[in-house]
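Board notes (copied after class):
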Amino acid sequence: MRKIFLTLFYSGLSPKAPGTAGSLVALLLGWIMLYLSSATTLFLLTILISIVAVKVINQYEEETQTHDNSQIVIDELAGMWLCMSIIANSEYNLFYISILGFIYFRILDITKPSIIGKIDKHTKGGLGVMGDDIVAGFFAGILSLLTFRFLFFIL
């Protein structure tokens, strides 16, 4: 059960780009959640999953003596769902703005600029694994809204 959770239904076992595979699964699950409920529910689930993930990742890392294993992609779910909860109530088409959010999230998660990189390098354990993706998700949501606002302003 732990492996299903940490690998986000085994998407983290993808031989190529497990983070992107996990983010894509998170995007699809986020769309389903937003269809069935609300942005507030998605946000609260993101917090709950993040808290549980920090604890589970701490246990996993202690047992395996590893840090931020590439197969662990539950952090991608937290980042993507935070991004989606930020953009969900905007006046823009959810499909298009969440695709942009996905792109921004992957860019920020891979390049780890500024505070995202500092969290990744200096924060240990589950909080470090989850923290950089949560911050990347926050900025991906804000950047998506700003991009759409700018595009609709100039068009």
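Comment from the instructor: The longest helix spans residues 125-154. The CA atoms of residues 36 and 68 lie 32 Å apart.
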